[in-house]
Amino acid sequence: MKIALINNLYEPLNRGGAERVAKIIAEGLKNSGHDVFIITTKPKSQLSIVNQPTGGQSSIYYINSLYYNLNKAPLLFRFFWHLVDMFSWKKYRAVKKILKKEKPNLVITHNLEGTGFLTPRAINSLKIKHIHYLHDIQLLHPSGLMYYGKEKIIDSWRAKIYQKITARLFASPETIISPSRWLLELHEKKGFFKNSQKIILPNPITFSSQEKENSNPEHKIFTFLYAGQMEKNKGVIFLLKTFLKFNNSDCELIFIGNGSQASEAKKIAGGKKNIRFISWPGDEEIKKHIAQSDALIVPSLGYENSPSVIYEAALAGTPVIASRLGGIPELINLFGGFTFEPGNQVDLIRQINYLIKNYKTAKENFAASARKEIKNLEINNYLAKLLNIISSK
Fold first, then answer.
1. Across the chain, what does the average pLDDT equal?
2. In the chain, what's the furthest Cα-to-Cα distance?
3. Does residue 34 lie in a domain region?
4. Which residues pair with 296 in a beta bridge?
């Protein structure tokens, strides 16, 4: 089968969970014998369009877009950019031209900000089967973000107008896949995808036969890890201030990632020896850091769908403490772990203390629970489910 995969960012411009999921699916399909090509975006000043596969990888078509650097632009500029991007006929024609040339049997779309929200219409006009993945609330609010305690942001009159437009542009692809029930139901309540087949399917994972669960020997310093973008919605500063208040010299906190709040976090940390910062080292290195840590903390203040880092912790058998927000509780229910009220320092410290005092039992329970579920999401098993969904339509 020939398959097009469309996501607004892809390697080497990847920076989040959606890109990792898109890559895992693309490589898995290709390794299974399918002909896969990618449509994504790039800043006009970077890279060349690649029309032929290299080194066994899929062909990648890059469409010029400002999306990659959009977060650096002024708010007013971003507002008008979103309007232009939604109705960009230039991007519509670019996507359609590629699809007409390649003639795929199926198009799998992920996040489409930057490729233009007319992309589903381009797919539909060519009568190609279409599966769309939900990763966040980009169709409900142009920022793609909703903070705890500020849920009304998607109920404002501006947001409602935006949602009517995006719902009309997207219409109803044959199939909608969401890793969390929370995100799917949120879209359904807003009137999206009325005639689509809707599937809840946690994200896929990959691991080698040599990969092992966390097997750290007991040591004097208990290591907590944060791994992800250093941004406000991720709760980085909240976690740092909580750890400083926790003030346990037998524990250390490692931040791995890059982002706009990295410098501020380092200043607040004030050179504390038990707080370390590491720039993002790549996906494979992240797996090693997670496996070498005693616990992963996911302190999100913004609603998240299905954070990839929790899957990696489940794979390593590393216990998780995470915000009780969005689709995160569904993953914790699936794999195990602990949740706390978002932004609540007292509740987070309570969970940290509980984990430290009951670590051996907690780790064993988490590893056992995660082990049962993780095999179902291994890429080959995941693809079997995905291909079954495709063939059923």
1. 89
2. 62
3. yes
4. 225, 320
